[in-house]
Amino acid sequence: MKQTSLTQPPAFGRRIASSRLFETETRVVQHYDVAAVRREFPAVENMVYLDSGFQTPLCRPVKQAYERFLREGFETAGPKQVWLNRLEETREKVATFLGVGPQEIAFTKNTSESMNIAANALPLSVGDKVLMIEGDHPNNAYAFLNLRRRGVGVEFIPMTEVVNAESFRSHIDDRTRAISMSQVTFHAGHRFDIASVGRLCAEKGLYFVVDVMQGIGVVPIEAKAMGASFIGSGTHKGLLVPQGLGLLYWNAALTELEPDYLATISLAEPPADFIARVGNMALAPTAGRFELGNFNLPAIQALGAAIDLINAIGIENIQNHCFDLGDYLIERLDELDIGLVGPRERRHRAPHIYVTALPADHWLEYFKQSGIRVSPERDGIRVSFGMFNVTADIDHLIEAIRRRDVPLASAARTTALSKLA
Ligand SMILES: Cc1ncc(COP(=O)(O)O)c(C=O)c1O
Q1: Which of 84, 297, 358, 384 is most solvent-facing, going by the fewest CB within 10 Å?
Q2: How many CB atoms lie within 10 A of CB 4?
């Protein structure tokens, strides 16, 4: 059959390097052609979209990948081998994106599934202990808390603004077997020192499981430098794909890590005659051992297109652009005396996630009515950026706050500072 090709992502090279984009203390450099990238996300012209920490809007390359899949399915009832070949191409792209081999990448359903696969693959027994961070994402925590059924304990260490190896060290004892944590927190934008925790795990002989759902696609990830045994993620935030597709990196040197569930594709030599036998149950030497049955093929093809887009822009450029937007947001919040709930310093914060100390019950509906998409979080309103955001989006937010209720905004600063004390 005729294979239709997708439009190649345009080059998003830097167009303006010297001019200032707006007049303020903060300097936002044009790291890439943001206006051109923005045109790939039509939804962001219909509203002020500051909610990529929830999900990113659909972009044209992802939509085209889905459309191609639907067209092919309509016309040919499914060129499955073509689709499976594209799956392997996407696996290679994911692997390169994370700096690992394709044999170390599995496709899953979402972060929760990846975390559950990881938790259940660890060789843990009664009395063993896993360390986690209190208040980290529940989709990571429950995967490990469920191991209590097998007599495995979870100890939560406090969440502080900075979490690194030293935060965990004094909690490790002779029953500690693993640490599991997020790279970036969803509710206040902490960016933890994953590499130092990875080194601690190597030093102490612990397994290390990392949830990168909030960071991936914005923060560059070097899986080997993290020292992780497993890394799990979904793809509907920085990786731009609709919900229902997840990723799992497995350090292929850790061959003792085996799946709790088994399917034909998990095997090294699936039976050609499709008859299951106890004699051929050796596991695939690849991360395929953790995969189960058929795949979310349209989403996987869309992921390939999304990674092409991210690579055309450059992940470092996306990170730097979001950091600049964050500096600008902080400066504008300071003008209004509105506190930031999470870390302020670039070295401790995520580039793209900021929680303003505006009580959600008082502000969420107002922002919605003002055409501004943000998320409610534990301690305020979360503003989160994507590659398409511009300073004008932040100006709209600030103007909306100014228009409404300046005295209440000031009160929010006091609340934030007392929470951090
Ligand atoms: C850190 C983190 N992990 C996991 C998830 C989501 O889990 P899942 O992909 O299973 O829906 C989120 C947010 O949606 C998150 O922020």
Answers
A1: 84
A2: 11
Mutate to test the pocket of ligand 1, among 56, 107, 108, 111 (most ligand atoms within 8 A of CB): 111
Q: What is the CATH number of the domain that holds 167?
A: 3.40.640.10
SS3 string of 100-124?
Answer: CCHHHEEEECCHHHHHHHHHHHCCC
CA of 268 to the centre of ligand 1 (A): 31
Residue nearest to atom 16 of ligand 1 (CA): 186
Atom of ligand 1 nearest to the CA of 185: 1
Instruction: Tell whether 344 and 222 lie within a shared domain.
Output: no
Pairing mode, strands 230-234 and 246-250:
antiparallel
**Overall number of domains in the chain:** 2
The CA 135 to ligand 1 mean position distance, Å, reads: 13
Domain holding 378, by residue range, is 34-58+314-420
Amino acid at 398: I
Pairing mode, if any, of strands 230-234 and 207-211?
A: parallel
The pTM assigned to this predicted structure is: 0.93
295 three-class SS:
coil
pLDDT at position 18 is 32
Q: What is the pLDDT of residue 51?
A: 98
Per-residue pLDDT tens digits for 137-195: 999 999 999 999 999 999 999 999 999 999 999 999 999 999 999 999 999 999 999 99
Whether residue 17 lies inside any domain: the answer is no
* Cβ-proximal residues to 394 (8 Å cutoff; 6+ apart), any chain: 50, 325, 328, 329, 332, 383
What's the gap in Å between 171 CA and the centre of ligand 1? Answer: 26
Which candidate, 44, 58, 61, places its Cα nearest to that of 389? Answer: 44
- Of 272, 233, 292, nearest to 111 (Cα)? 233
**Alpha carbon nearest to ligand 1 atom 12, residue:** 213
Q: Are residues 295 and 159 in the same domain?
A: yes
